[in-house]
């Protein structure tokens, strides 16, 4: 039996099935530990994890009940995703358990995807493709004659974390004016990226493209409501590569149906996958992808190795790198080792 037990629910990590734990174990070489799979129900996992030194959180929701049932010896809850909405971070903080994520692993991919949705929605790529395939060639050009050119238009970012900053960097060469709203980021940070700070109302009312990047925190759930979509231009395009629950989907559907906004490019939805009764699936003014913005050839290796590095640190008694509840670290038995700030926090 290994010295350290890393408990994890059985099954796929995130959305990619199979592959085992070879990538996670690479950074753990030399540490007497093993990743052991257990039940995916709350009661079963609580019982299974009573001798766990760390938790690899995947395959189930880690509710307050689960977290309160973890043993005192549990050093951390480690996630292989950017979002931490599957873990009750408040409950973990109350228990003094660090929760870590992968804040910087898929930034470039998600930013690329956001720009793809922006450009394809603006130039009506899917509609144009359909016209060609349906032998409606002559309809293609007239359909675009009412669309303004991209250069000189305004992109508004809601939240200004790493992905939003990468989107801003990509948008600049296209000649877009970029503004952003984020009450947790200093305005000087935005200015350093060539982005103008703005209120939420200014972002919504001034932007030709509104890109949603708010994290899935309890405070941000349902953040965009009907009143917000009514503030937007009738020609505006709404992009969401963040989290579906940050938007009240019924309000977005109404905005699209009644022409408050022109189009939406969505990688995330409120309920995933969507049911057949979701009106969004039948809308011609919506471009969809299946929560794939972070996907690339490096997706699994990069995030799994990141999980392994975090596990390696906490099992060696050191602070993890990407702690979303850093207030617990000072009072934990783990020791600080980083010489500089690692930019921890839920908005990173």
Structure notes:
This protein is α/β, with parallel strands linked by helices and 348 residues long. It folds into 2 domains: 4-105 and 296-331, NAD(P)-binding Rossmann-like Domain (Rossmann fold), CATH 3.40.50.720; 107-288, Rossmann fold, CATH 3.40.50. 31% of the residues lie in helices and 14% in strands. The protein is built from 13 helices and 12 strands. The chain has helices spanning 22-25, 42-48, 64-68, 89-95, 107-122, 125-133, 140-144, 162-171, 187-192, 200-206, 226-231, 249-257, 299-315; strands at 4-9, 33-38, 54-57, 77-79, 99-100, 154-158, 177-181, 196-197, 209-212, 237-240, 263-266, 286-288. It has a 7-stranded parallel β-sheet, sandwiched between helices. A 5-stranded parallel β-sheet has the order 2-1-3-4-5. Helix 5 (107-122) packs across helix 8 (162-171). The longest helix is centred in the last third of the chain and has 17 residues, at 299-315. The protein is elongated. Residues 344-348 have low confidence and may be disordered.
